[in-house]
Write a structure and sequence with these properties.
196 residues; alpha/beta; six-stranded parallel sheet; 8 helices; 6 strands; 13% strand; globular
Length: 196
């Protein structure tokens, strides 16, 4: 997909574009993530950008978007106060605000496509501690894609993945949830070319 085709197809009101990926970013790629954020913010007007406010890719993409004064940045966080000092998004949604009992699809997809099924069950029943908090991250990653009551689903996903271990960890989970829900996605194999 070319950058122009992406903009034509997705720069519309209500379009939610995920910008996220691995926490560990190669040194030679860091400037590219910020450059993509700037490119997206400068060449679009209506789409909203969404991330999970994690260190690494999320932070670099977001800093690029916000460098141009972007007001279209939203983050979905696993719990209130998550990386509060590093959250400069215009809109923040905490998993604590979501009634998981009313979101069976979020629970189902989180359990089905993760090895944390039992932990997710315990967390969803209200047991929140330093062990079950791991489930909040998987639920947050699913919610970023599927949406929930009052939270629009994603329209497209832009990822920075680990090329040696593709689709692993939380980033891999988010990418699989995109695929299962028919949400188109790309990684740096495509968007690096947008920067040329």
């Amino acid at each position: 997909m070319t950058f122009n085709k992406f903009v034509q197809q997705f720069d519309k009101q209500g379009s939610i574009v995920l910008v996220e990926g691995k926490r560990k970013v190669l040194d030679e790629d860091k400037a590219k993530l910020e450059a993509l954020g700037k490119l997206l913010a400068a060449n679009t007007e209506r789409m909203t950008f969404r991330s999970g406010n994690a260190k690494g890719s999320d932070q670099l993409f977001t800093s690029g978007i916000l460098a141009l004064g972007g007001k279209r940045m939203e983050v979905i966080i696993p719990y209130r106060g998550h990386r509060k000092k590093a959250n400069y998004a215009n809109h923040t949604i905490s998993l604590d605000e979501i009634n998981l009992a009313s979101e069976p699809d979020v629970l189902y997809q989180s359990k089905k496509y993760s090895r944390m099924g039992p932990l997710i069950e315990v967390y969803a029943r209200g047991c929140k501690n330093r062990v079950t908090i791991k489930a909040a991250y998987i639920l947050r990653d699913t919610l970023k894609v599927t949406g929930a009551s009052g939270v629009a689903p994603a329209s497209f996903g832009i990822f920075y993945d680990d090329q040696k271990k593709p689709k692993s960890g939380g980033t891999g989970h988010t990418m699989r949830i995109c695929q299962m829900n028919g949400i188109p996605l790309i990684d740096q194999n495509t968007w690096f070319n947008w920067l040329k």
